[in-house]
Amino acid sequence: MKELTIENPGLQFKRFALLGMSGLGKTFISRNLTKTDNWSHYSVDYEIGQLLFKDDHENLLKGFDIDNLTHLSNFLGKPGSSTMGGIPFSEYVSRQRLHRDAEIKATLKACSLVEKSPELSHFVCDTSGSICELVNPSDKDDLLLTSISRNFLIVCLEAPDSIYQVLIDRFLAKPKPMYYEEKFLNSLWHSFKRVSSNTDDKINPDDFMVFGFKALIERRKAIFDRISKNWGITLNFELLRRINDATDLIEAIKLKIGSAIENP
Questions:
Q1: What is the model's pLDDT at position 260?
Q2: What is the pLDDT of residue 240?
């Protein structure tokens, strides 16, 4: 368990790393801090795209920015029938590996920026929703979590089950590419093929993505919960909706840390 106090460097220098599933408001909060309080916003998803697209896929950089990450999702693709917009599963796995490597580099780059300028303040690291797939929150020596917690205060965003159902409903309406931990992905793929009785070239990519997302959301909720308990704090979605600026966010964090100290 990481010991947190009001004197935590991340809080004192106002450097926060926001963690949580896509759709819970990490980028929304980060953009608000940029617009209302002139904070620096480091988007890991944006940096992932910059790394992935710099050589063979430079065309995808056109129109790609923090507020429009569509090209990153399109690059990952969806496995299944090519006639339904899918790509071969082997190619899908290859792109997942590229994303994984880029996400690790992009996340560590945020830490490096702080390490090179330890007095850096008013800085929010907007992590990717898939960071939970790259870490082991039970390992006190985990590379990413150790690096992030050394330079930022880790703030995990949580929400009531009703909000997660909203995320599921959105995904059902418009399935999008996702990142999966590879062993989990292989297990999902084989399970789906058994259930659907389809060969790779017959699988509807969107059907698989919906199948995978429903399993993924439960998995990620559990991992983020362990991250918050072992490495940082949790802020509730209902509270987050009332945060308008940096002052509100900092006060909410101080109250959370104070409560944790009084009720260990």
A1: 53
A2: 79
